[in-house]
Amino acid sequence: MSKISHPLTRLLLAAVVVLAPLPAQAAGRHPAPTSAAAQANILALQAVQFHDQKDFLTAAKLFLRAYSLDPAPDYAYSAGRAEEDGGALLDAERHYQTLLETTDPGNRFYAKAKARLAVVRMRIAVGKAAAAAKEAAEHPPAPPIPLPPESMAEAETATASLAVVPPPVVLATAATPTVAEPPGIVLSVAPPEPGHVAAGRSALALGAVAELAAIVLLATANSDQNALDAKRTLNGNFDPRTAQLVDVQKEQRSINARVVAGWTTGGVGTVAFAAGIWLLATSPQRVAVLPAPDLGGARLALRF
User: Fold this and answer.
1) What is the end-to-end Cα distance of the chain in Å, rounded?
2) 188 DSSP 8-state letter
3) Which of its termini does the chain have fewer beta carbons within 10 Å around, N or C?
């Protein structure tokens, strides 16, 4: 067999060898499906578009679908940020916590998620405190029902009659000694000391003022934190065109100081409330023991 020496002939044979399997491939195989990572990237790009249109919750759903296909930390973090911006604070808290539990601490999104989780929890606490204050303002406790003058006079007369000591009973001399029955006892409880009650009421007032101050501090800190976070880009960094690093750090320190002061003041208010309630509940009382031979037993009279 003669050797193939012409270059054009060798090129044609090579083309035949390369092209021969192509019909079999086209007939028996389909194109390879798109990878999960590529699908996740497409969903993330769609989520960014919805986030730019302020449709935060739809963006969060798309980020979560991307995370289910490709569990990358940036998808979970972006879902949490979108939920936070959309007001779904409990969902954002849960997804930030999931990211912290499944991501290496050295990952840059770990520190971002940890910082955002603290902010979200503060916002949840402030919201609960504000709701409790609103509920208390809308539904104050019912005032005590005053007794009519006739009932008050009857109660005072009955109480005064209990404290009257009856005259001693003179027993006639008998041939056989008799054992006298033990005298009865009247317990008269004096009203609480005014100083103790005043201290309890002052503690309650101090607690109310402290709780109100704590709500104001936490609410202003939360508002300023939201304004500062609005200057961040989607990946959590600050845009140098709208925020200088020095100003951002100064503002963040001020916010953190107010958060600490708010929780501290709230703790002081809680302690003051507890002290006031304890003072009112354990106010000292005086007990007088008087004989009452005509009762044949013991009687306890309480006066408030």
Assistant:
1) 129
2) E
3) N
In angstroms, rounded to a whole number, what is the distance separating the alpha carbons of residues 280 and 77?
A: 50
Please list the residues that pair with 33 across neighbouring strands: none
Q: How far apart, in Å, are the Cα atoms of 134 and each of 88, 111, 121, 127, 215?
A: 21, 35, 20, 10, 11
What is the chain's length?
Answer: 304
SS3 170: coil
Provide the CB-side half-sphere exposure for 264 (13 A, CA).
Answer: 6
Q: Which among 40, 92, 74 has a CA at the least distance from the CA of 235?
A: 74
Token output for 71: 């569990």
Q: What is the pLDDT of residues 89-137, one digit of tens each?
A: 999 999 999 999 999 999 999 999 999 999 999 999 998 988 888 888 8
Cα–Cα distance measured from residue 94 to residue 101, given in angstroms and rounded to the nearest whole number? 11
3-state secondary structure of 301: strand
